[in-house]
Amino acid sequence: MKGSADQSEVSATEENKETDMSVWAAHVLTLYPDMFPGPLGQSLAGRGLEEGAWNLQVTNIRDYSVGKHHTVDDSPFGGGAGMVMRPDVLGNAIDAAKAASGGDKRLMYFSPRGRIMDQALMRELTAGPGVILVCGRFEGIDQRVLEARDVEEVSLGDFILSGGEIAALAMLDAVVRLLPGVTGNQASLSEESFETGLLEYPHYTRPAIWEDRAVPEVLLSGHHKKIKEWRQRSSEELTKQRRADLWERWSDENLK
Ligand code: SAH
């Protein structure tokens, strides 16, 4: 079997070439390894990756293909359109990833049938050692792999992507920015939308008047207590208007 030799460790500096088991690590299984690190190689996540604040390993599922045609998929039993990713190929790819990056990581498959990802999940993942992520293509993957390897299913939202890769990039972007050593100002993270259970208040910056539109007075007052109250009220109003689901939960917990 091929495989581990082709696994690419995406890490920039020489000192970080060795996988440091204490660093939060993602291992992505995909048919499109060139999509990684992609946008995660830029900005905060990219710097974090270079500096070894997190680690990314990418495996091409095709390295575990079968037969002389290097097959990874086949037509569905029962008929119907499209192709299904084979359980033997994926089972081997998953087992190798577990052996390479530790059996303690959460194993997840991106799927529109999964639990929709939210900030609470990102926090949970940040607190753990890392993730092994399976990106599907075609019509999806053979159901037996999900059961046999006890794979969690997670979704980016109620729409259909052509593959799991963009969902993986979105998850990793959301998790990595929470890691210590990636975002400089950790305090700024705790006030954001969803962290408090509310949507965030509106932001304003210079110029104070733009196209005849002024910034809310209170923000120019220098009165910290009043500013805090205004922001809290704005958060509550916005959440009430836009997200009845969040508002119900928050008001149950915070207003008697
Ligand atoms: N036939 C499937 C869709 C397959 S889309 C269905 O109707 O449910 C191909 C692949 O894209 C899936 O295997 C999955 O890995 C990924 N994908 C599609 N939509 C997604 C979503 N909303 N969230 C996460 N992954 C998704």
H and E string = EEHEEEHEHEHEHHEEHH
Domain module tally: 2
Q: Report the CATH C-level class of the largest domain.
A: Alpha Beta
Mean pLDDT: 92
Describe it.
The protein is α/β, with parallel strands linked by helices and 256 residues long. The chain folds into 2 domains: 8-176, Alpha/beta knot (3-Layer(aba) Sandwich); 190-254, tRNA(m1g37)methyltransferase, domain 2 (Trp Operon Repressor, Chain A, Orthogonal Bundle), CATH 1.10.1270.20. It has 8 helices and 10 strands. It has helices at 43-50, 87-101, 119-127, 143-148, 165-176, 186-190, 224-242, 244-254, and strands at residues 8-10, 24-30, 54-60, 73-74, 84-85, 106-116, 130-134, 152-155, 209-210, 213-214. The strands form 3 sheets. Strands 1-3-2-7-6-8 form a 6-stranded mixed sheet, with helices on both faces. The chain has a two-stranded antiparallel ribbon with strand order 4-5. The longest helix has 19 residues, at 224-242. The chain is elongated and about 70 Å long. The protein binds S-adenosyl-L-homocysteine. S-adenosyl-L-homocysteine binds at residues 110-113, 135-137, 139-140, 155-157, 159-161, 163-164, 167. S-adenosyl-L-homocysteine is lined by residues 110-113, 135-137, 139-140, 155-157, 159-161, 163-164, 167.
